Amino acid sequence: MAQSSGVGPAAGTSLREDAGAEPSRRTPAQLPKRLGRLARGAASRGSRVGLFVYALTLGGLLGLASADYATSGGYPFGGTAIGSWTAWPRAGSLDSDPYSRAVNARRSDIPLAVGEGMLLTAASDDKGRTLDAACSYRLAGVTPPARAWTLTVTGRGALAAGQEPVRTGFTSTEILREPDGRFAILLSPEVQPGNWLPMPRPRGPIRLALRLYDTPVAASVGSLDRDTLPAIERTGCGS
Amino acid sequence: MSRGAFWLATACGLVIAGIVHIATVLAIPRFSEGDAFTRARASETLDHPLRIHGLAGAPAANGEWLPNPDPAVSVGVCSYDLDDGPMRVSAQAGSLMLSVSMHSRRGAFYAVTDQAAVRGGLDLVVMTRAQYDEALANDVAGEVTRDVRIVAPARRGFAVVRVIAALPSERAVADAAVQAVSCTIDSPAEPTGEEPGKGKS
């Protein structure tokens, strides 16, 4: 708020200077009609109020619009990117940034606390392409140490009635694993053998959420790397 | 110069926009009426968690408002106001994984899972600094309490109980486990009493 007090007087003095300089400019020049009208308008007392109102309106609208944009949807920052995944260890803690707090308040969300678990999200595959509901993906590998985890897929917008997918996610207990403990989830619009996760929407972008419960990595996200998280590989596209 | 004045006004507008932006972002959590803190206050009169995301059966009466709930986790909230006395959250560790987290309006300040349970029970007591000092003073020397005492950063907040149903067949059990947790107000006279004398609703 120190900024605002600094700006006020500065704006006032320069406006006054401008108003004083105005007549010298207006008299000699054979300005185009429009510019002349503009200059005369600016010189007049009413236009100073007009500029003031303009500055206030611009500031108010732009400030509110940008605040709305930054706090609608997901968290604008605060995540840690690990490959195609982004970890959100501090989204709901006391020391989270004001944007995360505003996003949580607007969405009425209750993020996982550090001692409880951690959320990881992915919106693109390993090659950086946006996850698309029309494509098929293979999620394979391991997960970080956790007592339990769930992997869910969500699309954007509300579902039409009667179109609920048969399954929206897997838990660590119900997944089918290889003998060595690795697993592969097939995310596809078509039925697949093994761990098939149907697409939640016929089209559009989708997001994956990996929630680790009771995990030590929430306190040390730096210990995670690409190899400790499931790889997201696109296996095919189109119908 | 009129053009100079115009640009100056624009520059001022941008500075004002920055100030408005920062003020708005900071003000949203404070004045929000749809955030979890405000919605959780519907549970203030209950002595068990208010279900906000159930897995089995019909949805809760006052709606399930979590934006992206985990489909395998049953969630309940207990709101508290420490002016009424310390809040005690008692949970029994069952077969399913359970976690309890404490939130103030600013965010979560404590979380624990059922792995911290002592003899199968988890007793958390949220209190203010003054209530904590009083509880310490009232402790009988040599007597061991299994309460986990947590000093809250604000007088009002809510506790969140999450139970994970690892298999679809455990969903009803998970919902029941959330409902089985008790959130009661410890009477101020006996902050360390085992069970406050409060009837079930």
Key phrases:
heterodimer, A: 239 residues, alpha+beta, Jelly Rolls, 2 domains, 6-stranded antiparallel β-sheet, 4-stranded mixed β-sheet, 4 helices, 10 strands, disordered N terminus, B: 201 residues, 5-stranded antiparallel β-sheet, 9 strands, 27% helix, globular, disordered C terminus
Q: What can you tell me about this protein's structure?
A:
The complex is a heterodimer of chains A (239) and B (201). Chain A is α+β, with helices and mostly antiparallel strands. Chain A has 2 domains: 1-71; 72-237, Domain of unknown function DUF1214, C-terminal domain (Jelly Rolls, Sandwich). Helix content of chain A is 31%, strand content 23%. In chain A, the strands form 2 sheets. A 6-stranded antiparallel beta sheet of chain A has the order 1-2-3-9-5-6, with no helix packed on it. A 4-stranded mixed beta sheet of chain A has the order 8-7-4-10, with no helix packed on it. In chain A, helix 1 crosses helix 2 (33-43). Chain A is elongated. The model of chain A is unreliable at 1-29 (pLDDT under 50). Chain B has 4 helices and 9 strands. In chain B, the strands form 2 sheets. Chain B has a 5-stranded antiparallel beta sheet with strand order 1-2-8-4-5, with helices on one face. Chain B has a 4-stranded mixed beta sheet with strand order 7-6-3-9. Classes of the chains: A alpha+beta (239), B alpha+beta (201). The interface between A and B is large, with 75 and 62 residues.
CATH class of the largest domain in chain A: Mainly Beta
Give the count of helical stretches of chain A.
4
Helix content range of chain B: 25-40%
Strand segment tally of chain B: 9
- Total beta strand runs of chain A: 10
The sequence of SSEs of chain A as H and E is HHHEEHEEEEEEEE
